[in-house]
Amino acid sequence: MIKRPKGTYDIIGEDAPFWHHFENKAKESARVFGFEEIRTPILERTELFKRSVGDETDIVQKEMYTFDDKGNRSMTLRPEGTAPVVRAFLENNLMSLGLPQKLFYMGPMFRYEKPQTGRYRQFHQFGVEIIGSSSSKADVEIIWQAKYLIESLHLHNYKFQVNHLGCSSDRLEYKKALKAYYKDHYDSLCDDCKVRYENNILRLLDCKNPHDVALKEKAPKLTEFLCDQCSAEYMTIKKQLGQLSIDYEENPFLVRGLDYYTGMVFEVKYPFSDTVLDILGGGRYDHVISELGGKDIPAVGYACGIERILSIMKEEEVEINIKPLSEIFVLGMGEEAEPYVIKIVRFLRRKGISVEHDLMGRGLRTQMKYASKIGARFTIIIGDEEINNGIYVVKDMETGNQTSVESSWIENYILDKLEE
C-alpha cells in the first residue's frame, strides 16, 4: 500500500465540516471588510521568493520545496501567500483598477520542516492584503479584520502582540546595536544564530533555542531606535487600536520571520494544551513590489495557519453547524419501486434538497441502518403495498414517528417538513 508523504494528511470524515466552517467564516469576514478573492498558482518561479521573502531566511535556506523543471527552470511550491499575490498584482496590472486593492487568498502552502502540532509540510493559510495605502488606517484595518475573523470563530483567549520595525535608517542603527550586544555573547550562540549574526542579525530574535531566548531579553529594543516620524506613526496605530477597543500588548522583539517586513508588525498568540501557538501574523511590507520590478507601492497584510486554528477550535469544543450528508433517504423495496424512488429523488434534488437512495441492492433493514448512519432526517419507504395503495410511509429519524402520506402529495409534504 502506498502511504501519503510525511507531513501531509487527508481531510475526511468529521474533519471536513470544520474546514467548511472555517472557509465560510473566513470568506464572510473578508466580504464584510471589502476584500476580493485572488487565487494564485501553487507553483511559482524560485526567484520570486528569494527576492521577496529574503535569501537569508530559514524559509528560503532550509524549507522550500525547490526543483528544476524539464526546461531547467528553478521552480518552487509556494511556501507563503504574499509574494504570489504581489506578483499577480503586477503581472495583471491591478493598479489600473485603482488603489487600494484589498485582496484575500486561501489555499495550501509547502515547507519542509519537522511536523508538529498544527504544522505540516503541506499546510493551509488564509490571508488578506491591502496594496496601495501607506496610511496607519490600513495597518489598523488589517488588525481589525483579523480580530473580526477570530471572534467569528468563537475563539476568545487570543492575545495580539504588536511592534514597529521603523524605517530603513532606524533598522540600520538597530542592527549595529544588536551586533555590538551579541558580539560579547557570540561563542554561546547556537550554530544557526552564529550564521544569522553574520548574515541577518534580526533573525537572531526569532531563535527558539532556550539559551538564545533568554539572551534576547537583555538585548536592545527596536522601539528605542525609532525616528520621530516612525515613532509618531506607531503612536497613531496604537491610538486607533484603542479607539476600536482592540486589546494588545507591545513586544519590542517581534520582527516576524520574513525579511520583507517594514513598519508595523503583529502576531496573535493563543494558548493550546501546554504551549502557546502563533496562529496569525503579518505587518507592513512597503518595498516588496519595487523589489519585484514594480513601482514603490506600500502594502500591509497578514496570514493565519488554518490547521492551528482548527486544532484550537476542536480543543475548545467550538460548536459548528454540521449538516447531514443527506436530508432525505428514499427507501425502495424491489425493482418495481425503482421508478417511484427516482421520481421523488429527481424532484427533491432539483429543489436543492440533499437526497439519497440505495445503490447497493440492500434490503429494508440494511437500508434503514444506512439512512441512520448518514444522518438522514426523514426516510420515505416505498414497497409493493405502498405503490398499490398510493400511500407512502415517511419516518422521522429523530423521533421514530411514522406518517402515511398520499403519493401525489409526498414531495410537497417533505418540503413543508424541512421548513419547520
Which strand order spans the largest sheet, edge to edge or round the barrel?
Answer: 1-5-6-11-10-9-7-8
Return the average pLDDT rounded to an integer.
94
What fraction of the residues are assigned to beta strands by DSSP? 15-25%
Report the helical percentage: 25-40%
Number of helices: 15
CATH fold-level label of the largest domain: BirA Bifunctional Protein, domain 2
Q: Given this structure, which CATH class of the largest domain is correct? A: Alpha Beta
Our count of domains comes out at 2
Q: Find the count of extended strands (DSSP E, 2+ residues).
A: 16
Structural description of this entry:
The chain is of the alpha+beta class and 420 residues long. It has 2 domains: 242 residues, Bira Bifunctional Protein, Domain 2 (BirA Bifunctional Protein, domain 2); 92 residues, 3-Layer(aba) Sandwich (Rossmann fold). 38% of the residues lie in helices and 22% in strands. It contains 15 helices and 16 strands. The strands form 3 sheets. It has an 8-stranded mixed beta sheet, with helices on both faces. Helix 5 runs parallel beside helix 9. The longest helix is centred in the first third of the chain and has 18 residues. The chain starts with 14 loop residues before the first helix and ends with a helix. The relative contact order is 0.11. The model has no long low-confidence stretch (mean pLDDT 94).
